[in-house]
Amino acid sequence: KQEVTQIPAALSVPEGENLVLNCSFTDSAIYNLQWFRQDPGKGLTSLLLIQSSQREQTSGRLNASLDKSSGRSTLYIAASQPGDSATYLCAPTKVETSGSRLTFGEGTQLTVNP
Amino acid sequence: GAVVSQHPSRVICKSGTSVKIECRSLDFQATTMFWYRQFPKQSLMLMATSNEGSKATYEQGVEKDKFLINHASLTLSTLTVTSAHPEDSSFYICSALTSGGAYTQYFGPGTRLTVL
After folding, report:
1. Does A5 touch chain B (CB under 8 A)?
2. Counting CB atoms within 10 angstroms of each CB, which of A19, A103, A108, B61 has the fewest?
3. If we measure between CA atoms, which residue out of A1, A59, A7, A70 comes closest to residue A34?
4. What whole-number percentage of chain A has pLDDT above 70?
5. Distance between CA B51 and CA A81 in Å, rounded?
6. Judged by CB atoms within 8 Å, which residues 63-82 of A form the interface with B?
7. Interatomic CA distance for residues B79 and B75, integer angstroms
């Protein structure tokens, strides 16, 4: 059974800092990995999707890397802003004969202070 | 593209009543949809996988008679919480899987259920 761990659980930083959020997963035979953002009381916003054959993906100030063999992914946020405050979720996808399955980590709750 | 909607966004009901939540893929066909539940301060937990035209597959510990799932068309899946109780109060989120082997799930905005 896939288990996903995200470190740190919570992070509070001043505006402008560069951040690193970590995700590790126990089963490295994944199809892809997604990073999501969730604002309080809201649904999920997909930030980045990395295929298993890829090393990293970039979107604006966000960069996600994937080291599939070691079961790790990192989300890097450059020049953080108060609007980045949210919970960030990591979710690898595993494809099995019964279908595909996303497993979510507990998330990193980020607060960026002005 | 790949937009998923949920209705209602928020529902408050009395204990013992049944509540139906709809999940629609608006601009694509989804043979597979997923239902997740999220309790406060916790992550999303998969409840069941819904395949169009067949019975849903429930995760261990999820009562299939309590959480009825119907996936009657390629764009609509419904979750009915039967005889709801306060402990069923939660945030319910659906997702729809695109076809073509991409295995990318697109998520709905969620439904907040409060059972009094």
Report:
1. no
2. B61
3. A59
4. 100
5. 41
6. none
7. 14
